[in-house]
Specification:
Elements lengths: L1 H17 L1 E4 L2 H9 L4 E5 L2 E2 L5 E3 L6 E5 L1 E4 L7 E8 L2 E4 L4 E3 L19 E13 L2 E3 L6 E4 L2 E6 L2 E3 L3 H4 L7 E4 L1 E7 L2 E3 L5 E3 L2 E7 L2 E3 L4 E5 L6 E13 L3 E8 L5 E15 L2 E9 L14 E13 L4 E6 L9 E7 L21
Parallel strand pairs: 1-2, 2-5, 3-6, 4-7, 5-8, 6-9, 7-10, 8-10, 9-11, 10-12, 10-13, 11-14, 12-15, 13-16, 14-17, 15-18, 16-19, 17-20, 18-21, 19-22, 20-22, 21-23, 22-24, 23-25, 24-26, 25-27, 26-28
């Protein structure tokens, strides 16, 4: 009996070892794609300049990050990492780091001018999980969540705090486009742009996250091939030392819809410019002209959004086309900044939020 047990344990260990493959360079990754090992362990890879760490064709497999992943320097507009497929499990293992060494690209211009800067991670996933990744110093934008469905992003740490003094810009945490049933939770972002920017999507939850140093949490609709954001829940989050707390911004002269956006239990702390921003005249170069109502903002529910704005800032700004918003419910307490007496388009169903 003892011999049989020992043999069984040994066999099980062999099967476990054989079920994973270690990848130390790009060539080994290409070989691993051709194999059938259900687990690929990425270990201390240095990706050559101008090349992408490409995880495609890996449906049903697990990708584990071990050690440090780094990238050669090149000015280009590609992606440092691409992950596409179905039923993929992405896991960050203890002690790992995906290090973009973004200071090599940072020039205070971001994606608008200066050096060409690559995206950090492009994901196009279905029925998948991304968990536990530690990411540092992205050249510009971090996560592109594009045409994804049924995907969880959890326990992710995006640390771009060095960019505050070294010229980081447009270092968005999570950018969501044309995606459905997305959950982003238990994560941290320290950056120099939006913590979350939802350009379009349906049934998206952003919960139990901490945003520090950037431009706040944004639903930003307009200017894309799909301009629709519906059923977006922002819940139990903290926004610390950002220039904006939360905002919904729609493109000037754009067409589309924003419908069903609850901000529920969001704590704002030490906001520099404006606590809550709702505008219908957004342009990339900054808001201007009178707001247009081609992207109406419906069922905007602000519940228990609270915290302080610095004295030179503004508590609340609303500038939307009169008659375009519908079904707003607001319950908030933002203090410390100046009231804005020039708000436009506030629906008659709620008390003027700008008077506080």
């Amino acid at each position: 009996m003892t011999s049989w047990v020992a043999t069984s344990v040994a066999l099980a260990l062999c099967i476990t070892v054989a079920s994973a493959v270690d990848v130390w360079n790009m060539e080994q990754l290409e070989q691993a794609k051709k194999g059938k090992d259900p687990v690929i362990r990425v270990r201390n890879i240095n990706v050559p300049a101008g090349r992408t760490l490409d995880f495609q064709g890996l449906d049903g497999r697990t990708i584990e990050f071990h050690g440090r992943v780094t990238f050669g320097y090149k000015e280009w507009s590609g992606h440092l990492i691409i992950i596409k497929g179905k039923n993929i499990n992405i896991k960050g293992m203890p002690g790992h780091l995906i290090d973009g060494e973004g200071h090599r690209w940072w020039d205070k211009c971001g994606g608008n001018c200066g050096k060409k800067k690559p995206f950090m991670i492009y994901t196009q996933l279905e029925n998948s999980y991304v968990d536990g990744l530690r990411i540092k110093n992205t050249p510009a934008w971090c996560f592109a969540i594009n045409q994804c469905s049924n995907v969880h992003y959890s326990n992710i740490d995006i640390d771009n705090r060095d960019g505050h003094t070294k010229g980081g810009h447009n270092t968005d945490g999570f950018d969501v486009h044309k995606s459905r049933n997305i959950r982003i939770y238990n994560s941290k972002v320290n950056n120099q742009d939006d913590c979350l920017a939802i350009n379009s999507g349906w049934d998206i939850v952003f919960e139990n996250n901490v945003c520090e140093g950037g431009h706040g949490i944004a639903v930003a609709v307009g200017g894309y091939d799909v301009n629709e954001a519906k059923n977006i829940l922002i819940k139990n989050c903290k926004v610390i030392k950002n220039n904006i707390g939360i905002r919904v911004k729609t493109l000037l002269n754009g067409k589309g819809i924003v419908d069903g956006v609850p901000f529920d239990n969001v704590e704002l702390k030490d906001i520099f410019e404006t606590g809550i921003v709702i505008i219908g005249n957004y342009l990339n170069s900054g808001p201007r002209e009178k707001p247009t109502g081609g992207i109406p903002i419906k069922n905007l529910n602000i519940r228990n959004v609270r915290g302080n704005v610095f004295p030179n800032g503004t508590n609340v700004l609303v500038n939307v086309a009169p008659g375009s918003p519908f079904g707003w419910i607001w319950d908030f307490n933002v203090w410390g900044g100046k009231p804005n007496k020039n708000c436009l388009g506030v629906p008659s169903t709620i008390a003027d939020p700008c008077a506080k």
